[in-house]
Amino acid sequence: MGLFDGAAFVLTEQGLDAAWYKQQVISHNIANISTPDYKAKTVNFGLVLENTAKCKYHDNTDCPFDHTKETEKKDPVWVTTTYETNTDQLLNGNNVDIEKEGLALVDVQYQYKTMIDYMNSQYAMIRSAIGK
Predict the structure, then answer these.
(1) Residues 93, 130: Cα–Cα separation, whole Å
(2) Residues of the chain with pLDDT under 50
(3) Is the CA virtual torsion 113, 118, 121, 123 positive or negative?
(4) In the structure, how many helices (H) and strands (E) does the chain have?
């Protein structure tokens, strides 16, 4: 096991990738605010860890996850992209809500910054341990 192969590093790296993807989708929605018939997309991401830990420790035979798969062990972050359906359409068929998109962008930027701060603190701790 390498220095940066720990669960926290892997999880943070995947979280950063998911946050970056969400920023891209939100930016794309904002860029298409006046495109006729454009449907806004929503990105959701979460952790598989809660469900897999519950199944592993409680011998749950109804577990929705196949714990023999390598992808689950390497990819505990899941990402889904869906079309926004709960916002009103404008006359041109577009349903992008600029206020909602702006708030979502600020939220994901805060999440991204928090994960970057965590990674920086871990690197600082490692630098301190090796004396540089």
Answers:
(1) 59
(2) 49-74
(3) negative
(4) 4, 2
Q: Which amino acid is at 53?
A: A
Answer for the pair 56, 90: CB distance below 8 angstroms, yes or no: no
DSSP 3-state percent helix, strand, coil across the chain (nearest 5): 55, 10, 35
Q: Tell me what pLDDT residue 37 has.
A: 87
The DSSP-derived string for 39-73 is: --EEEEEEESHHHHHHHHHHT-TT-SS-TT-HHHH
Query: What is the structure's pLDDT at 28?
Result: 94
Q: Which two tokens stand for residue 53?
A: 């830990």
**Cα–Cα distances in Å, from 93 out to 20, 43, 109?**
28, 21, 29
Q: Is 122 exposed, middle or buried (0-12, 13-18, 19+ CB in 10 A)?
A: middle
